[in-house]
Structures are given as structure tokens and as C-alpha cells.
Amino acid sequence: MLGNFSYCNPTKLYFGEDSLNFLNEELPKYGKNVMLSYGGGSIKKNGIYDKVMEILKANGKTVFEDSGVMPNPTTTKLYEGCKIAKENDIDLILAVGGGSVCDYAKAVSVSAYCDENPWDKYYLRMEDVDNKIIPVGCVLTMVGTGSEMNGGAVITNHEQKLKIGHVFGENVFPKFSILNPVFTYTLPQRQMVAGVYDIMNHITEQYFSGEDDNTSDYLMEGLMKSLIYSSRIALVNPTDYEARSNIMWTATWALNTLVAKGKSTDWMVHMIGQAVGAYTDATHGMTLSAVSMAYYRHICPYGLSKFKRFAMNVWNVAPNSKTDEQIATEGLNCMENWMKELGLAMNIRNLGVTEDMLEGIAKSTFIMEGGYKVLTHDEVFEILRASM
Amino acid sequence: MLGNFSYCNPTKLYFGEDSLNFLNEELPKYGKNVMLSYGGGSIKKNGIYDKVMEILKANGKTVFEDSGVMPNPTTTKLYEGCKIAKENDIDLILAVGGGSVCDYAKAVSVSAYCDENPWDKYYLRMEDVDNKIIPVGCVLTMVGTGSEMNGGAVITNHEQKLKIGHVFGENVFPKFSILNPVFTYTLPQRQMVAGVYDIMNHITEQYFSGEDDNTSDYLMEGLMKSLIYSSRIALVNPTDYEARSNIMWTATWALNTLVAKGKSTDWMVHMIGQAVGAYTDATHGMTLSAVSMAYYRHICPYGLSKFKRFAMNVWNVAPNSKTDEQIATEGLNCMENWMKELGLAMNIRNLGVTEDMLEGIAKSTFIMEGGYKVLTHDEVFEILRASM
To answer: Which of A352, A349, A347, A311 is nearest to A328 (CA)?
Structure first.
């Protein structure tokens, strides 16, 4: 464990098949006006909308609908949400959906009472929040982002072709989140596996950084093994409760600040993936999978001992009489095979990237410094080419 | 992940070499009267007492000293603490020490304003807290119990020869805990290894229960591997910061409710160990180590697949052409060797138990039902005999 740090995660989680009932315990803590934020309406088809509305009504809430939150929430939608929130004196934003809806709800929660353009303040200048924050609660219907128990909120600005995540502090974390694995059953397989890879990548982004034998490294190996195990079951049987519940729980702990404590982190796959996302509007998890193998093969020589450990501890690669390079390579090959097994996007061309976009994507990729090699924009360009 | 559950851990942790400075951030949140609870005075020798007092004075606090908290805090001491707390209108109990001091502080926090005998109410009848609770903060100088981030508070009643732990709810968790690995450097080796085994046993108590492939099982395997790795380094070099910090962090996460969520747990080693402790006043971790091997060898046949998994995933036992029994046995032998390497108590005779005590200890052992075999008192007696 390196450096000095503090840890506190105030989000209360309700987990399980009956967890929606706990909404009855949380709602009385907030005022009358609830803004119900959700996506394209799938929650109306699968009955979750009706169940949530029933509980809201039973608790005497006035509900202000805020539908149409898109997979990559835009600044345009953010401003719309802020208007609803401010005009109706909203006491609680209830996000019902996946990571995009939760991210969006948090972005609205800090932006509604921001006295200047929130995109400029919170995304371009990355300032701390000094205005009123509207409390957020989440009902999760899709897993992957970990947004249900952290301060992350990614927003896309189409005009500027920028997709940026601000990681807000504890005061912006959801007050509560309801995690019912059954709510994720009806998700199309493509969305499920994109979520699985998002989880995996959250872990590898934090794992492939630093050289110490940190407790977090061991925890992350456990999370990865659990995820790989459960994802293979869920792929065959999407309604296996155990598998879906373990995936859901792994997602939360992969990105709720715990495993990053006391260590450095990378996040370059997310930076490249988000740049691809800003150009293509492709599913977040798929943008990550499509650039991952090229990225990890590129940085492997710079963090060889960790890639060797990854191969042995996560993928059970036997070390006998192999070189470190061979062991590390075998581990990455195992990961690639698992990704193909899941049916993930393995190149960015399939996501709509064309040759003429590569330079723009490379240039707009934000360079982070925690990984085994600080990339140049030329290297990002090469990784993008290798991902075509 | 089984059943429905909620998760929320409100304790704020400050970790690192400079973490005591954060006391300056916490103290202003509480009133003027601080009760400073600590043990036998080792904190006066190693300078921690002076540092804490300086910060308390700088923050304008009136300090009420409450020293002499013993390794197994007694009801007599508890009543003494309650008197100090109530008479002086204490606003914050600051526990400086190890798990015993933290446990004691929490027991005082719920007992001071209890309008009947707190031992009867909270330990014999295990009731919920319905009276005023005094906030508790901790400065940790010894690791193992996880008391710094949970609601556990073990108290010993010498007259009744009972050592009982009440696991209180979130409202009793410490408000903050300061974890400085350097503060644990001066601990005698015997105390250090007793703490290490306490951590290990917290994990195995939660691991050896249930049959599902739960994310928690993978997390616990990670915690155990980290602990085994770091303990071997700390044994040779007690001032290895990395090793001591990883042990400290592992201790917290081994028993702060996380890994027990969504699964069943055992706790029989603690029940037997605590009964031994009530008769001998031996160090908690040593009572656990002294009965562990006999207990685990006794229940191994009833949870064979988990013991096999333990052998392979935690101790890297190679499965090639061995029976499940052989693999499981090899894993337990690895654990025993590691325990001997640490210099732990491996039998209860060395802790002061005599033949004539065995029946009384067996009879006073509380039987829990979450393990692979619900024991009879006769079986407890046999385990105690095998531990002599």
C-alpha cells in the first residue's frame, strides 16, 4: 500500500431478488419531487418501470419523467435534465438503467445548480463541486460501469467530439443503489458481454500499474477469476442467478475505489476507447475490447513481471521452463481467447472507425501517466492502426 | 451471492505514514469532551500518546484519561469506562490501541447510556441498541481484529467465565479510524503473529461455509494469499513498510462485513477459542491458532470440495493424480507449516489449559450453525482434547 490515502464509501447497497422493496425504506428520506431518469424505454417493456412507479406513488412522490437518456449521454441531454431538475425543485434523482443513466444522473445532480456552463467547469476544467448537489439513487438494470457506487460520470460532447469522465468525490456518490440480478436477465447478449468486458477492463486498468505486491493486486486477481468463471456460465445460461449475481457484485467492487487505494493506476484503454466512442458512438465496453489487445501487447514489455503474474495467477499458465515473455504472452492469449468466446468486438473497424478517423482519434486521446509506458500520440495512432 | 442483503460501511479510514495528521480533520466534528481510552501504556513508551495528546490539545479538547484497557476487556473495566463517559458528558471516545481497545470503546459507546446492566442486555440477550450512542474514533497500533471498521465488540465476564462478542450495527461502527503501519513496528513478534493468525482465521471462518462459487470466495483467496506473502516478509523484517501495510489493510477487509455478504459463515474456531480465552485469558489469536488444526481436520470431510479448492487456490497444491482427500490434506498441512513458521501456539496446553478444564470449556462453547458440520458439545470436547 503506497502513500497516504483516505477511504470512505457512503453508498448504501441493496442486493438481491427482492431488493427493489428497499426503495420503500429510502424514499421517505427525501422530499416530494422525484425526477425519474431512464433510457430508451426497455424498462417499460420488462415491467421495471411499472414496479418503480408503483412504489413512488405509494410513497406519495410527485414524479417528473426524464426519459431518453442515451447510451453515451450527451451535453444536450444533460442541459435538458438540468432544466427539469431546477424548474421542478427536484429532491431526488432516481436513475433506473445502466451505467449511462447513473452517470447522467450524477452529472445532472452537480450541474443543475451550477451557475455557469457545467461542461466547461466540470469536464474541461475538472473543477470540484461547490454548488448544491441533488441526491441520486439508482436502480440498476445493466452492469459494468460500477457507476452505482462511485463518483464517475462520463459525458459526451458531440460538437467538440469529446467523451470525458469526471470522477467526482464522495458527496456525489449515489446515496443508495438497488442491485437486482434478475433485472439484468432480459439484456441482449451483446450488452451483457460488453458490460462483462467493461468490468474486466476496469480491473486491468488498475492492475497493470505499479510493481509492488499490493493487497489490491490479490483482490483484483480474485475479482477477475470470479468474473471469468461467471461470465462463461452466463454466456450459456443468461438466467443463471448465481452467475448474474456474481457478475453484478464483481462490477460494483471493480470500480468503487477500493482496489485503487494505495496504488497507481493506468486507464489508457479507457482513454483510447472513449476517443473511439466520441467518433463512433459505439457501446462503451466494445470500444474497450476493440483496442485492448493491441494496447496490452504494446505495453507488455514495459511491465513484464506483472503480465507474467497475470498469466500465472489469473489464467493458470504453468511456468515450467518458459521465459517470462512466453508466460506473459500466453496469459494475453488466454485473455484474447476468452474475449472471442464472449463475442466481443475485437477491432475498431467493426465499430465504424474508418482510416481517415485514426489521426483525429489519436490526437483527441487524453494521455494518462500511471501505466507501464507513458504513450505518445504516435503510439496511440499505432495502437489504433493495430486495432483496425 | 445468496439471499437479499444490504451493504453500507460508514467508517472513514485514513491510511499511511502521515495518517495521524487527519485527526485534525476529524476532531472539529465533535464536542469538547474526549475520552482517551488505551491499554497498558506502551503508547507512552513509543511516543504515540504524546503525538495524540498534542493534536487533542491543539484542537482545544478536554481530555479524560481512561487507561488500562486489558487484552480481553472485562465487564468490570466496561462499567468503569461507562462511568467516566457518562459523568463527563463525553462527546467522542478516542481508542488508541489494538482490537481490544477498539472493541472496548464500542462497548462503552453503547453501554454508557444503557438504563440497565449492559452485559445482560447486549451480551446475554443480544438486544439491539436503542439508547444514545457515543461516537468512537480509533488510532490503531496493532492489527488483526478488524475492529477499526466493524461493529464487533468482544467482552469477557470473569465471574461467569464467558467471553462474548456482540456484532453491533452500522450506527456503532467507528466514525473514523487512523491506520498507520509504522505504529505497528514496535509490537512484540508474538503479538504480531497472533494478529496475523487472527486475520487468517477471520477469513477461513467465512470461507469454509457454503458451496457456491461466490465472488467473496475469490476475494478471500486473494486476501489470504496477500496475508501469507506479507507475513513471511514481516517475520524476517518487522519494519518492512510494504509488508506491514498490506497486513494492516488485509486485516481491515477480512472483517469489515464485505466478504461475508451474500454467503453463509462458520465462526466455530472463534467460539471454541473464545471459550478457551475465558478460562485462560490467553491472547485471542493464539487461542484460535491452538484449536484450528484439530477443528479443520475434523470438519474437512464434510466440506471436502472447499478444502480442495483452498489447497489449490491458496497454497498452490498441484492436483495431479491425487484424490480430493489427499489434495485437501496437503492444503491443511501447508497451513499448519506456515503457522509453525510464524511461531503460533499450536496447542492449548501451552496456553494454560489443563485436563480438568476441558469439560467446562466444551460446555461453555457456543455452537454456531453455519459451518460444514454443526458440532455437538462432545465433538467440541474431542477437538479440545486433540488440541492439547
So the answer is: A311
